[in-house]
């Protein structure tokens, strides 16, 4: 089972896209856990992830998150995907980061 961690400023704004990513994964038959957290939790929560997706509003923290979780691939969800809450495209980004 893959562990996809979403991070934003407070962990709340990613809840809709989190649900949409999970729906997309279920439709594909991909077993994964998707969770949303504040970017301030990266050092503790992020280390157990298979990939971390940052909301565009915290994209500035990509280098910091990558440094805190050096073994975990980190990406920033593009604003167009985030704004549309497109779970299919966000899942595709996560799968690419995980090499799937």
TrEMBL record:
Gene Ontology molecular-function annotations: kinase activity; protein-N(PI)-phosphohistidine-sugar phosphotransferase activity
Phosphocysteine found at: 8
Domain PTS EIIB type-3 positions: 1-100
Superkingdom, natural source: Bacteria
GO-annotated biological processes: phosphoenolpyruvate-dependent sugar phosphotransferase system
Keyword Transferase annotated: yes
InterPro entries referenced in this protein's UniProt entry, alphabetically: PTS_EIIB-like_sf, PTS_EIIB_2/3, PTS_EIIB_3, PTS_sugar-specific_EIIB
Keyword line: Kinase, Phosphoprotein, Phosphotransferase system, Sugar transport, Transferase, Transport
PANTHER family tied to this protein: PTS SYSTEM N,N'-DIACETYLCHITOBIOSE-SPECIFIC EIIB COMPONENT (PTHR34581)
Protein's name in the database: PTS sugar transporter subunit IIB
Protein source organism: Collinsella aerofaciens
């Amino acid at each position: 089972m893959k562990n996809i961690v979403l991070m934003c400023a407070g962990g709340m704004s990613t809840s809709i896209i989190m649900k949409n990513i999970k729906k997309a994964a279920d439709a594909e038959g991909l077993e994964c856990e998707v969770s949303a957290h504040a970017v301030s939790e990266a050092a503790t929560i992020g280390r157990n992830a298979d990939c971390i997706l940052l909301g565009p509003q915290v994209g500035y923290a990509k280098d910091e998150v990558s440094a805190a979780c050096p073994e975990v691939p980190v990406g920033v969800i593009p604003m167009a995907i985030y704004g549309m809450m497109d779970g299919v495209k966000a899942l595709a980004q996560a799968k690419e980061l995980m090499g799937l």
